[in-house]
Design goal:
This protein has 323 residues and is mainly alpha-helical. The chain has 13 helices and 3 strands. It has a 3-stranded mixed β-sheet with strand order 2-1-3, sandwiched between helices. Strand 1 and strand 2 (114-117) form a beta hairpin. The longest helix has 77 residues, at 14-90. 24% of the residues are buried.
């Protein structure tokens, strides 16, 4: 007689062991697949993060380029206005000279929010074509309406205004009623004398001590100069914040960022950095900076740090993108 296998004689654990092992194996396979999926997703997330950082960097570069382009557009518009004014002023002579207005001068900041403009040296007046000898509105305290009043009373040039006395100017204002009583013309002849003598620096420094032209409310010398603001708006000069490395010909926003990352954040620091070290920084940033030639950068930065803006302008006039 054949003996059949008796499952009842098995230990009670054995009937449950096989399903457990099958479940364990299936779970292990599922976990392995899930772990692989997680690893793939994490890798994809990391790749996306890298792309996002790259896009953010491109966006910042685009923003910087846009701001720089807008500044250049404003500068060019100012130059166009200068040349149009020069053409209008000299058209009757049959000649037009704009060579002195095609070069932007600088303002040299003595603090992040305070600028001191440099004027033209004698024999090389860079601002005369833009200002002329009759733009009375650059005088602190004189606006369009007041300029019309002065013109109506025969004062149409800086020399005429410089020859007037504060009392004679007050007599003119009194003819137009009480609305001009608050105006103080005491400093107008002095300002006009400086403008007529083309002492632009001195005029700007004087205006920084005035409060809308008033002599009885002198300030600490930190107010804005009307002449300086007019020149900036016209695109004749540019305002550089203290230690803005872009004041150096050849340095743009991206190279400035490279120098900042390397610890070079001031004009003085750049002036004391060897050209070989600057070249190393550029080389490490990749081939896209291969065209940058930093040979004159320390020299330019030194002039900026010392406030020698006329010398810096003369040097940059001889350069091409810093070369």
């Amino acid at each position: 007689m054949i003996a059949l296998f008796d499952f009842c004689s098995l230990h009670w654990i054995l009937p449950w062991l096989l399903p457990f092992l099958l479940g364990l194996g299936l779970g292990w396979l599922l976990w392995g697949k899930f772990k692989s999926m997680v690893a793939d997703l994490e890798s994809e997330i990391n790749n996306l993060k890298v792309r996002i950082r790259g896009l953010e960097g491109d966006l910042e570069a685009c923003k910087s380029a846009r701001l720089e382009a807008e500044g250049n557009v404003s500068l060019l518009k100012g130059r166009i206005r200068e040349m149009e004014a020069s053409i209008a002023a000299q058209g009757d002579k049959g000649t037009v000279s704009v060579s002195n207005t095609e070069k932007a001068s600088f303002t040299a900041p003595v603090a992040p929010s305070v600028s001191v403009a440099t004027g033209a040296s004698s024999g090389d007046d860079k601002w005369l074509a833009a200002i002329g000898d009759n733009k009375l509105q650059i005088v602190e305290g004189i606006g369009p309406k007041m300029e019309e009043v002065l013109h109506a009373n025969g004062i149409k040039t800086f020399s005429a205004l410089a020859a007037a006395t504060p009392s004679s100017l007050r007599d003119i204002l009194n003819k137009y009623g009480d609305k001009y009583k608050i105006i103080d013309p005491a400093t107008w002849p002095a300002q006009a004398k400086l403008a007529g003598d083309r002492k632009w620096n001195d005029l700007i420094q004087l205006q920084k001590t005035l409060d809308t032209g008033r002599s009885d409310t002198a300030t600490d010398g930190n107010t804005d100069s009307k002449l300086e603001k007019w020149l900036i708006k016209a695109g004749v000069i540019r305002r550089w914040a203290q230690d803005d490395l872009k004041a150096v010909e050849g340095i743009g926003p991206k190279i400035e960022e490279l120098l900042h990352n390397a610890g070079i954040k001031t004009w003085r620091a750049l002036s004391e950095t060897p050209v070989s070290r600057i070249q190393q920084i550029l080389d490490a940033a990749g081939s896209k900076y291969a065209l940058a030639v930093p040979g004159t950068w320390p020299q330019q930065a030194g002039l900026a740090a010392d406030g020698k803006w006329d010398e810096l302008q003369a040097l940059q006039d001889s350069l091409n993108a810093g070369k």
